[in-house]
TrEMBL record:
InterPro entries: Metallo-B-lactamas, RibonucZ/Hydroxyglut_hydro. One of its GO terms (cellular component) is cytoplasm. It comes from the Bacteria. It comes from Myxococcus llanfairpwllgwyngyllgogerychwyrndrobwllllantysiliogogogochensis. PANTHER family: N-ACYL-PHOSPHATIDYLETHANOLAMINE-HYDROLYZING PHOSPHOLIPASE D. Residues 98-293 form the Metallo-beta-lactamase domain. This is Metallo-beta-lactamase domain-containing protein.
Length: 358
């Protein structure tokens, strides 16, 4: 693993800011409550599930992709539009601002170009085809959220970046100009054009190599415009701090929560569908969009299990889901039902499927 893949080294004024954080102690960031990421206890059952489990961890056919370029050429009628580009990468059009979240356009979520989790689908559009951006928002430094080739390409556009404490060292190493980087501690906020971005607590971890675990901070994010408010979880487990986020910043027009890459043996660092619904309630409700699924094989569950389970549970709990197709530029405030497009892949049919209540 090359140093260029791992990123940069924290030093100078950046190290001073990191060291001053309440979440930083003994050289590392920590969660408010203790967590235990990784395999706990006897790993043999998990290894058996990995090698002999029957789950279909990759799609049986090509995923349907839509091209958003025509839609991007006109403003959203409601002032809020979302284009899901895969995993946790979204182009958010919020009250006049364009925000790109956790952009991963590379072939693999890995420090290596020849190994590691490979995409199920191409990006619906190329990086070059993206419209002018107001800001790139990075939740934390894991490879499925911070992609070196993608950052290097975006750096040439001289777009501002907002991220959590310490992550700017990686961005500088990948060519982003220091004056374009804003790093926030939990509960700090920064204006970007007509919107305000606030870093909020999440329950996760960080690191891009063997020796840098928890050297940078991880965060969830509140995005506030003149008319609309959004919540983006990044990666997080279930934490009571979500109630405080909802109390301070809710209600939200759209809550984007991670639902994939979960397993009981992985501690309390990811939500999964059941805990995503609990987190959604703690945040105060609103339309719920599942993210962090459908692009990479990062877990032991079937590729579509997060969406399928969430759809069933959300229907039982009468939670409104927003499940846009990959690449579809959609206005969530205009949609009251969830479309289970992933079922078309299993059926081998890519024509529009039935619409189910969400």
């Amino acid at each position: 693993m090359s140093s260029s893949s791992r990123g940069g080294h924290i030093s100078g004024l950046r190290l001073e800011r990191v060291s001053a954080s309440r979440q930083f102690a003994e050289g590392r960031f920590r969660n408010t409550a203790p967590v235990h990421p990784g395999i706990q206890g006897n790993p043999l059952p998990l290894l058996g599930e990995y090698f002999f489990g029957g789950a279909q961890r990759t799609p049986p056919g090509p995923l349907p992709l839509e091209n958003p370029l025509e839609a991007w050429g006109r403003r959203p009628d409601t002032g809020l539009r979302v284009t899901w580009l895969g995993h946790s990468t979204m182009l958010l059009e919020l009250d006049g601002a364009r925000i790109l979240t956790d952009p991963v356009f590379g072939e693999r979520a890995s420090p290596m170009s020849f190994a590691g989790p490979r995409r199920f689908h191409e990006a619906p559009v190329s990086l070059d085809a993206l419209p002018e951006l107001d800001v790139v928002l990075l939740s934390h430094d894991h490879y499925d959220h911070l992609c070196r080739p993608t950052i290097q390409a975006l750096a040439k556009r001289r777009v501002p970046f907002v991220t959590a404490l310490g992550v700017g060292a990686h961005l500088e190493a990948y060519g982003v100009a220091p004056e374009l980087i804003t790093e926030l501690d939990w509960w700090e906020r920064t204006p970007v054009g007509p919107v305000t971005l606030t870093a909020t607590p999440s329950q996760h971890f960080s690191g891009r190599g063997l020796g840098d675990r928890n050297r940078t901070l991880w965060a969830s994010w509140v995005l506030e415009g003149d008319k609309h408010r959004l919540f983006f979880s990044g990666d997080t487990g279930l934490t009571e701090e979500l109630r405080e986020v909802g109390r301070r910043h809710g209600p939200f027009d759209l809550v984007m929560l991670e639902v994939g890459a979960f397993h009981p043996s992985w501690g309390t660092i990811h939500l999964g569908p059941e805990n995503a619904l609990k987190a959604h309630e703690m945040l105060g409700g609103g339309r719920l969009m599942p993210v962090h699924w459908g692009t990479f094989n990062l877990a032991l569950h079937a590729w579509d299990e997060p969406a399928e389970t969430l759809l069933r549970l959300a229907s039982e709990q009468q939670v409104r889901l927003f499940t846009p197709r990959l690449g579809a530029a959609s206005e969530p405030l205009r949609l009251e039902q969830a479309t289970p497009w992933w079922r078309e892949v299993s059926a081998g049919v890519l024509a529009p499927g039935p619409v189910l209540g969400g």
